Amino acid sequence: MIKNATTANKVISRLSPAKINLFLHITGKRADGYHNLQTVFRLLDWGDYLHFLVADNAMAISADDSLDVNKLCGQLLALTGAETITTSIEDNLIFKATRALLVTAIQSNKLPKQLPQVKITLDKHLPMGAGLGGGSSNAATTLLTLNEIWQLNFTQNELIKIGATIGADVPIFIFGQDAIAMGIGEELTAIDLPDQHYLILTPDAHVNTAKLFAHPKLQRDIAPLLIQTIQNQSRNYTQNLLAPYHNVFTSVVKSLAPAVNEALRYLQGLEEVALGTARMTGSGSAVFLPLDASVITDKKLLANWVANAPCPAYVVNNLPS
């Protein structure tokens, strides 16, 4: 499901939401070099915005053997607002998502003979490398929206398969709801969780993901849990974080990024009042603290927590179902 969609003068504006991992386990390494994970993804009502301006006229498409998909993608897509993210548009996940969608359309004989050009403006709010899924969410929002604009009619499952070729976090944003994730993140099972507010801190730190996965102290052999167990034990990782649930990257990131350690310590100092357990999300730098309902009504307290944080801080809510 696509959230927050509005249209006016052929402009479609959509929220590209952030995600947090309530816990994150690695259960083993795969033959293809990737790692099998277990996690619960929670989507937030906070993120980037993508604005799609659809041209009035359609461009003729000739899907023969000589078709240069990169060139076609460049002709159909204009992207602004992403200049500081990648030096080349072709390296941006929005472009990669568009290209993957076109390639799949060609392979499936679904490519129309005419397509309108689309200008995408990225209104970026989520920091890169924070573990909040910003780039993956942008890619997923692009897949979902262009699938509609170009009337390609791919199903959600088909889009999830396309998304998985772009990045491990892309499928959850196409799935569009809180979920238990396994595999590399593409095996998704919906989970119903209570509404929750969070205090999120985004320290200015970036740890290379490949370096993290290669770190000798990273735990990679956590015993996998049954999906039913994760569903039944949601109280052990929503507000508080109780064993065996944890984020395997926390100790490694703390040792490599002092700013993350500082932000986490700040949130840990608020746990007694917030009645929650501070933790990292994903393998990035962002940390968060679940907030008890009794805290949300104290606007002055929350404002002080945000103002006194050692880095940018935000009070956000889960994305309504």
Feature tags:
321 residues, alpha+beta, Ribosomal Protein S5, domain 2, Alpha-Beta Plaits, 2 domains, seven-stranded mixed sheet, four-stranded antiparallel sheet, 11 strands, globular, disordered N terminus
Helix/strand-derived category reads alpha+beta
Number of strands: 11
Q: Largest beta sheet, briefly? A: 7 strands, mixed
Stretches with pLDDT under 50, minimum 5 residues: 1-8
What's the Cα radius of gyration? Answer: 20 Å
Can you walk through the features of this model?
The strands form 2 sheets. Strands 1, 2, 3, 4, 5, 6 and 7 form a 7-stranded mixed sheet that branches. A 4-stranded antiparallel sheet has the order 9-10-8-11. β1 and β2 (11-29) form a beta hairpin. It has 2 domains: 6-188, 2-Layer Sandwich (Ribosomal Protein S5, domain 2), CATH 3.30.230.10; 193-317, 2-Layer Sandwich (Alpha-Beta Plaits). It is 31% helix and 27% strand. With 321 residues, the chain is α+β, with helices and mostly antiparallel strands.
